[in-house]
TrEMBL record:
Protein name, per record: Nucleoside hydrolase
Single GO MF annotation: hydrolase activity
Alphabetized Pfam families for the sequence: IU_nuc_hydro
Keyword entries, A-Z: Hydrolase
Record organism: Dyella agri
Length: 310
């Protein structure tokens, strides 16, 4: 079977880093388009270049939009990912620069050059995808699949706005544009992420057994681990890694529900929430395959290989 061809929109980000390592180990990376999110765009672009060097890869890196489409964000996620987004390790300046083309334009061009071939994996606020869609609404017709990490499908989010998940809450208007435009996509939400954590000791054993990628991940993960320990959170949860597993191998999904999902744009307490029409009351097209369970052993095997600990 030929390897999946991935176009990855990302805001690295510790769990983005693991997801990109998985993509490199199990698929072909056509390009990284980079969004602002976990930290500012200057950091996320540099982190994407750092990851390219770590992997000895040559895929292009395209910088995207430095802010959400409409409103300034309420929060970033530096308190989890580190001020620089990769655990404040202090990596050297990456070798090659980012490419000059804007991320949204690169997404349009690459999907025109390779219609029907590329799986779009969205691991960040959806600003770049929304811009691309506004420029060219036919984008969904050229994408093989879209997999989105985002949302909290029963309202248990991870941001200051209780029901909102970070990627959707950072740029709700962008998520609205994407959710309205794509007739079908896979949605890997924060609540599924929490159900698919790894045991701390088991994960540490993979880090110890792995190669330079495991060493790198152990370094960048330290800040997030300290944060989790202080907040009494146990186990290793990696939202973007779970979404990447679904992008690499859709057959890993063992339970899902396909429903209409919309984004709340106005709520006083709910802006950025993903509203799921669980009972099909609205008669809207059910566009999101909501991933509820994956085969955890296969997910673990994918992560181990990405760390060089297979
Ligand atoms: C998502 O938000 C970011 O902090 C992570 O990188 C992930 O994409 C989880 O809510
Ligand atoms: Ca991310």
């Amino acid at each position: 079977m030929s390897k999946p061809q991935l176009l990855i929109d990302t805001d690295p980000g510790v769990d983005d880093a693991l997801a990109i390592m998985m993509a490199h180990a199990h698929a072909d990376i056509a390009a990284l388009s980079v969004a602002a999110g976990n930290v500012g765009l200057g950091h996320t672009v540099r982190n994407a270049r750092t990851l390219r060097d770590l992997l000895g890869a040559t895929f292009p890196v395209y910088a995207g939009c430095p802010s959400p489409l409409v409103r300034a964000p309420d929060e970033d996620a530096a308190f989890v990912h580190g001020m620089d987004g990769l655990g404040d390790v202090g990596f050297p300046e990456p070798k090659a620069a980012a490419d000059a083309e804007a991320a949204a334009l690169a997404l349009l061009r690459l999907t025109r050059e390779r219609p029907g071939e590329l799986t779009l994996v969205a691991l960040a606020p959806l600003t770049n995808l929304a811009l691309a869609l506004r420029l060219d609404p036919t984008l969904p017709q050229r994408v093989k699949r879209l997999v989105v990490m985002g949302g909290a499908v029963t309202g248990r989010g991870n941001t200051g706005k209780v029901p909102a998940e970070f990627n959707i809450g950072f740029d709700p208007e962008a998520a609205h544009v994407v959710f309205e435009a794509f007739p079908a996509f896979d949605l890997v939400d924060w609540e599924a992420t929490l159900r698919h954590g790894f045991d701390d000791a088991e994960f540490d054993a993979w880090l110890a057994a792995g190669d330079r990628r495991a060493e790198f991940f152990g370094q960048v993960f330290r800040t997030a681990r300290d944060y989790n320990a202080k907040h009494d959170r146990h186990g290793v949860v990696a939202a973007d890694a779970l979404a990447m597993a679904v992008a690499i191998d859709p057959a890993i999904v063992t339970r899902s529900e396909t429903r209409a999902v919309a984004v709340e744009l106005d709520g006083r307490l709910t802006r950025g929430a993903t509203v799921v029409d669980w009972a099909n009351r609205l008669g809207r097209p059910a566009q999101a395959r909501i991933v509820l369970e994956v085969d955890q052993a296969r997910f673990a095997a994918m992560v181990r290989k990405a760390l060089g600990a297979a």
